[in-house]
Amino acid sequence: MKISRRRLLQLLGFGGLGFGGMQLMSLSAEAFLKQTPPNVVFIAVDDLRPQLGCYGETYMVTPNLDRFARQGRLFRRHYVQVPICSPSRHALLTGLRPDENTQFNARALKTLPREIAEQPHTMPELFKRSGYYTVSIGKIGHQPDGHTYNYDGSGDGQVEIPFAWDEVGTPAGQWGYGWAAFFAYANGRSRPNLPQEERSPTEAADVSDTGYPDGLIAAAAVAKLQQLKQQRQDTEQPFFLAVGFYKPHLPFCAPKRYWDLYDRDRIPLSPASAKPANINPRSWHDSRELYRRYWIDPAAANTEAQQRKLRHGYFAAVSYIDAQIGKVLRTLDALRLSQNTIVVIWGDHGWHLNDHAMWGKVTSYEWATRSVFMMRVPRMRKRGRAANGIVESLDLYPTLAELCQLEVPPGLGGTSLVPLLKNPSHPGKDGAFSYGRGGKTMRTDRYRIVRYADGEPLIELYDHQTDPYEKKNIASERPDIVEQLLPQLEADTPTLL
Fold first, then answer.
1. CA-CA distance, 283 to 437, in Å (whole number)?
2. What is the DSSP letter of 38?
3. What tens digit of pLDDT does each residue of 475-485 get?
4. How confident is the model at residue 295 (pLDDT cuts 50, 70, 90)?
5. Is the peptide bond before 268 cis (omega within 30 degrees of 0)?
6. Are 139 and 44 in contact (CB under 8 A)?
């Protein structure tokens, strides 16, 4: 009698366990991953700061992400390399550490023709070369659907991340492809197609989830998982599925029922709404992402009513995305794919919600450089215990390569996080490095140091033990700490402790 591969693995003790029996990275789990190549589902979310229930923000309504954190490993102190979409995603996908000359010039992964190099150019390309079937839906690189576009919005048909995907595409809905969908309002309207006086930073339309593009992205991901399940049964080929959601990026649009989850009068305001003291002028910005692109009076944005409205919109958009991610996760469970699929949820950077009197990202502060990051791996041991060690976005590439038994290309800037997946008490890295608004910054366990190329002061230092919200630069008061940290900042070579 012929025994299927799945049944054989079950008889050997490797299959058939749901999350109730997961024990991550025991010897049997490592053997399981080696004998049964795991699938990978990578979920990217735009502008998702670590403001979720699982991060201790109990006023947030994020049940699906909170449940995922209980099933996997939440990284409490994860930092991106550049706090803006394109270079942050470029660093994660290539595994390469940016520098001061390229921090804002990594404008997506350009589709210029190139010969197929000996080494893979990006993380998904490594998986494709290694026999995985690779699919991209939504915003993974900098373009909203994986393709580049001319300035008039017409597609040129070139894939944004070359040589990486077997399939690329995102449902267009009423908006068409590209940025019109990314900046969508309900009923087919979009910010780029409206006069400035009609561009609102928020919208609460009484529509279904698919009344905005992220609902369509979730539906496309669910349908694709069903196809990939059948394809793996037929061919035994593992898959790498990347799903990129647009919200909570501006405009803060979500179906009305997600707004109804919050009482605006009870929404907390920023605990640090004033500009920090003794800062370099380069470290602060004028919130142009909000004020220059939407019909809003900067003075009005500083009123308590407007702050509550904007924060309400962000919270609603986060809850909307939480629901869409929940659809993907429930599909993995229903299809019994969870038992052999690594799942990653990653925010490309943080966002200021009037923190330090700013709206937006692109700063060297904690609010912009820290974002959501969590992983779930088959047979996870100590699941649900958060890791407090410092980690970086660059670490995902070597981590997935190790878990999936793939040869890691030389020259990657990150470090595998498998030790933290095994042991959530692992101290992590000795520092995380980011670039924002002309400053290079390093976050250590206790301090954040920022070095600027111009302006005064050239150095900023924040003590998170006494000043967790980075309200005052104390570099001039603690030259001893500056002297201690500067060589580490300049070396730009963090290590796993």
1. 6
2. P
3. 999 999 999 99
4. confident
5. no
6. yes
User: What is residue 462's three-state secondary structure?
Assistant: strand
Annotated catalytic residue, options 85, 90, 147, 312 = 85
Question: Nearest 5°: CA angle at 233, between 228 and 238?
Answer: 55
| Residue located via tokens 């049944």 | 7
Surface-to-core class of residue 3, CB atoms within 10 Å of its CB (0-12 exposed, 13-18 middle, 19+ buried): exposed
**Element housing 40 (H / E):** strand 39-45
349 included as an active-site residue: no
Least confident of 288-292, 404-408, 442-446, 491-495: 491-495
Is residue 81 within 8 A of residue 91, CB to CB? The reply is yes
Q: Model confidence at 99, in pLDDT bands (50, 70, 90)?
A: confident
User: Which of the four pLDDT bands, split at 50, 70 and 90, describes residue 466?
Assistant: very high
Six token digits for residue 35: 């004998």
Residue ranges per domain, the chain? 37-435
- DSSP assignment letter at 304: H
Token pair belonging to 5: 């591969």
Q: Residues 90, 142, 352, 356: which is the catalytic one?
A: 142
Alpha carbon distance 96, 90 (integer Å):
8
85 is an active site residue: yes
From the number of C-beta atoms within 10 Å of its C-beta (0-12, 13-18, 19+), residue 265 rates as exposed
Residues 19-29 pLDDT 10s: 333 344 554 55
Instruction: Give the DSSP H/E element, type plus range, for residue 168.
Output: strand 167-168
Among 418, 445, 200, 462, CA closest to 313: 200
Best CA proximity match to 203, nearest among 355, 352, 312: 312
End-to-end CA distance of the chain: 52
Q: Does residue 401 contact residue 126 with C-beta atoms inside 8 Å?
A: yes
Q: CA separation (Å) from 467 to 279, 366, 453?
A: 15, 12, 25
Closest by CA to 38, choosing from 50, 51, 22, 57, is: 22
Looking at residue 409, its pLDDT comes to 86
Among 347, 276, 280, CA closest to 318: 347
pLDDT digits (tens, 9 = 90+) for 162-189: 788 999 988 888 998 788 999 999 999 9
37-435 classified as CATH 3.40.50.720 = no
DSSP 114-167: ----SS-SSHHHHHHHTT-EEEEEE-SSSSTTSEEE-TTS-EEEEESSTT--SE
For the stretch 4-20, pLDDT in tens is 434 333 333 333 333 33
Q: Which residue has the tokens 């070579």?
A: 493
CB atoms within 10 A of CB 140: 29
Decide if pLDDT at 347 tops 60.
yes
| pLDDT (average), residues 140-147 | 79
Residue 26: CB atoms within 10 Å: 13
Strand partners, 462: 448
